[in-house]
Design goal:
single chain, about 650 residues, alpha/beta, about 10% strand
Length: about 650
């Protein structure tokens, strides 16, 4: 995407058209306050920016519409934006027309048919910016034409700034947007990352859903036996099962389910439970509950006794072990503990035989043997105690399950009594219980290990594989590697051109730092950021080589960025006086070094554009008006001696001063 024309429409309908050459260096030169800087603001506005940055003055008093004509790869695009009403700081309305042979439209043809978002989407899509969501620090960010425009514009406050390298970088949110979208524009982020990222999001969501279903199914499986017993006793209470069938403990899950199915489908028993029978049944359940609780307390006491015994034994064995370890030194005399070896009458120091055995050694050896025997005796009791603890734990689990079933039955009786008071008949009570049984049995498919549990586990395994595969394709390390490769490519051009412009530290490794969004280079004292390299001339030079290197990379690698770079006042550090600004150095004596430096800037822009063979366009607004013939050939407009962006006739007609 390059710029064919900038068009202004006066409030009375006159049209002012500024044409530019595609694939070339275009220079707009002139004195101060002639409207040169407004060209960049107009293009920024017509590329979809909502905030109005155009100056208040002749242009705001005379212009009713701003428009540009872009050349796209396969067509042309005419974008027009209506001037905001007085006091308005932003506007979203726009006009967009596409056509292969479009020319600047007449005032009568202007109308609002779009908004700034549509302009960005349509133009961005035409140059290849897809619906690409890029992960950033603030979450996913979808790249669009507005982000690409940040790489194509440099106003006079930015092109010589020591801290900010890119357009609007100082604004809130723009730094994050630049860090997030630059890897995409450099090609480090895959074109289909948006689709892949959405697939990964959906896959993770599906995995979490399956994991939740499995967790619920496993919880259901853990409680199924207790619930079955509770429902069996409730069915008996409602008269849906004979007492003998319900009172019998059904240890087999399949048998319990079958009994409940019979209860849900069998005819109701004719005789309802009398109040005294219900009280008797409730009393039996309470007695069973109390007995189970006593058994649990007894088992708990037994377990505690074994645990205490184990703790005391551990303390005892620790003390005995320490004593035995101290007595181990007695074996230095060389006598075995079983008494079947050599005589103990040997000196441990020199090895000579003693005239008679040392009784202290005999005593220590005997004590050591006794201690070791005690340790062995303690160790032999441990397996039996551990086995007893396991058996007690199993018995505890069984009793607790039975207790939960009994407590559930008691709770069901209580709930049944409460529900019965609100029911009109015995048939309604039974229907209520049948409904509970039917609902629960319908859920039991998830509780069977061979049913839904197995299916859910299989689906979770597959979902985990899908997530892992997508995460591998979106591996941040691969993105980092591709980004490093792109930056190294760009760094080579930056270093070469910085040396050509004779910038300070330009002969070293000049490169972009995307984390800090600046230029860095090496010096004898370490890495130097742009802000620590002195003089505005160096800041302008490094801005220029950075943006030229980026755009050469974009063109050579067919990246979806407009093939356009607009620079406003890049030579401002070389024009210290108003006289120099008015003349553009043509007739004012200046230092030869400054003239040569300005010439090098424009020669570099010219050569880069020529090397790209029409694939790149630069538009420079500047005071410079160099006498070289090649420079004059590229001057499109020279606004001096009363000529300016806004014709004097417009100013006379609509009021205001030319300045």
């Amino acid at each position: 995407m390059q710029l064919r024309s900038i068009i202004l429409y006066s409030k009375s309908g006159e049209k002012r058209v500024l044409d530019f050459r595609l694939g070339e260096l275009n220079i707009v030169t002139g004195t101060s306050q002639t409207g040169k800087s407004a060209l960049l603001d107009i293009v920024d506005f017509c590329m979809g920016r909502d905030e109005v940055t155009l100056p208040i003055g002749p242009i705001s008093r005379t212009v009713s519409w701003y428009a540009v004509l872009f050349q796209l790869p396969d067509t042309r695009a005419f974008v027009a934006r209506k001037a905001p009403a007085p006091g308005r700081k932003s506007v979203t309305n726009a006009m967009l027309e596409l056509g292969a042979d479009l020319e600047p439209l007449d005032f009568e043809q202007l109308r609002v048919n779009a908004d700034s978002t549509m302009v960005r989407q349509q133009l961005g899509g035409r140059i290849g910016i897809g619906d690409t969501a890029v992960d950033g620090a603030g979450g996913p960010l979808t790249a669009h034409l507005g982000h690409a425009a940040l790489l194509c514009l440099q106003n006079q406050d930015e092109v010589s700034h020591r801290r900010w390298l890119f357009h609007r970088q100082a604004e809130d949110g723009i730094r994050t947007a630049l860090r997030t979208t630059l890897p995409y524009f450099l090609g480090a982020v895959a074109e289909d990352q948006a689709a892949m990222q959405q697939q990964l999001t959906n896959a993770r969501r599906a995995l979490r859903r399956l994991q939740g279903e499995l967790k619920a199914a496993e919880a259901l499986n853990r409680d199924v036996d207790v619930t079955l017993q509770t429902l069996l006793r409730e069915a008996e209470t409602r008269g849906l099962l004979p007492e003998a069938a319900a009172a019998q403990v059904v240890s087999n899950r399949a048998g319990a389910i079958e009994a409940l199915r019979r209860a849900a489908t069998a005819a109701s028993l004719p005789a309802p439970m009398r109040d005294e029978e219900q009280r008797r049944r409730e009393l039996e359940l309470q007695q069973l509950r109390d007995r189970l609780r006593r058994n649990l307390r007894d088992i708990s006491d037994q377990r505690q006794l074994l645990v205490d015994q184990e703790r005391h034994e551990n303390g005892y064995t620790s003390a005995v072990g320490r004593g035995a370890s101290r007595l181990d030194a007695v074996q230095l005399v060389g006598a075995p503990l079983d008494g079947d070896g050599d005589d103990v009458g040997v000196c441990p120091a020199c090895g000579s035989e003693l005239t008679e055995p040392d009784p202290q050694v005999d005593a220590m050896l005997a004590t050591l043997a006794e201690l070791r025997g005690q340790l062995d005796a303690v160790r032999t009791t441990r397996p039996g105690r551990e086995r007893a603890l396991r058996e007690l734990q199993q018995e505890t689990d069984q009793l607790r399950q039975q207790l939960r079933g009994v407590e559930g039955a008691l709770s069901a009786l209580s709930e049944a009594e409460t529900a019965r008071r609100g029911l009109q008949s015995r048939a309604e009570e039974q229907a209520y219980t049948r409904g509970r049984i039917d609902t629960y049995i319908a859920q039991l498919g998830q509780a069977e290990p061979g049913g839904d549990l197995a299916r859910l586990r299989s689906q979770i395994t597959l979902a985990e594989q899908v997530v892992a595969g997508l995460e591998a394709e979106l591996d941040p390390q691969e993105v980092e590697d591709r980004l490093s490769h792109s930056l190294n490519y760009i760094s080579s051009d930056m270093t070469q051109w910085a040396d050509r412009l004779k910038l300070e530290h330009g002969t070293r490794h000049v490169r972009l730092d995307l984390k800090r969004l600046t230029v860095v280079t090496d010096s004898d004292d370490g890495v130097a950021e742009l802000m620590r390299i002195g003089s505005g001339k160096n800041w302008v030079g490094y801005h220029l080589v950075a943006h030229l290197a980026l755009h050469q990379y974009f063109v050579m690698h067919d990246r979806p960025v407009p093939r356009l770079l607009m620079l406003d006042q890049p030579t401002q550090p070389y024009y210290p006086s108003d006289v120099a600004k008015q003349s553009g150095m043509r007739n004012v004596p200046v230092q030869d070094a400054d003239r040569e430096a300005v010439l090098r800037l424009f020669e570099l822009m010219r050569d880069v554009v020529n090397e790209l063979g029409g694939g790149f366009q630069i538009i420079v607004s500047d005071h410079a008006n160099l006498p070289e013939s090649w420079f004059q050939d590229r001057v499109r407009y020279n606004w001096r001696d009363g000529d300016a962006l806004i014709p004097q006739e417009w100013i006379d007609q609509h009021g205001g001063n030319a300045g």
